[in-house]
Specification:
- The protein has 124 residues and is α+β, with helices and mostly antiparallel strands.
- Helices cover 26% and strands 44% of the residues.
- It is built from one helix and six strands.
- The strands form two sheets. A three-stranded antiparallel beta sheet has the order 1-2-5, with no helix packed on it.
């Protein structure tokens, strides 16, 4: 009886170790996949309209260009408008600011910022 419990305990510990290693790898893989990060963002009301500003950090080893897509939503989650800010040169390890043009919107309740690097190898 004690042998069975000992074997069961060893298998349980073994599976827990395997799951912990897998989870650690999964977190590491996701962190290394996200090479562009929005490190700063601000929504402000100016006399000309609503403006989103912020900064994008390039954690990759090479310089590249990116598009920053800013989408505005109303209180029901409907998209009001979208604007794309192009950053032509984002050096490796650099942080570059971005700013949208003023939008005359009064019903904005939420917004999203997406760093778009263009289509992937599958064309998406």
């Amino acid at each position: 009886m004690a042998r069975r419990e000992s074997g069961r305990r060893q298998r349980t510990i073994g599976w827990l170790i395997i799951m912990a290693v897998f989870l650690g790898y999964f977190v590491w893989a996701l962190r290394s996949e996200e090479v562009f990060r929005v490190v700063e963002r601000n929504l402000e009301q100016t006399p000309s309209g609503l403006v989103v500003s912020g900064a994008v950090l390039n954690t990759a080893t090479a310089a590249t260009g990116v598009n920053v897509d800013v989408t505005f939503f109303d209180d029901r989650g409907r998209q009001l408008t979208q604007e794309t800010v192009t950053i032509d040169h984002l050096a490796a390890g650099a942080t570059v600011p971005f700013r949208t043009k003023p939008k005359p919107l009064t019903t904005v309740k939420n917004y999203t910022i997406h760093v778009n690097t263009g289509p992937n190898m599958y064309g998406n």
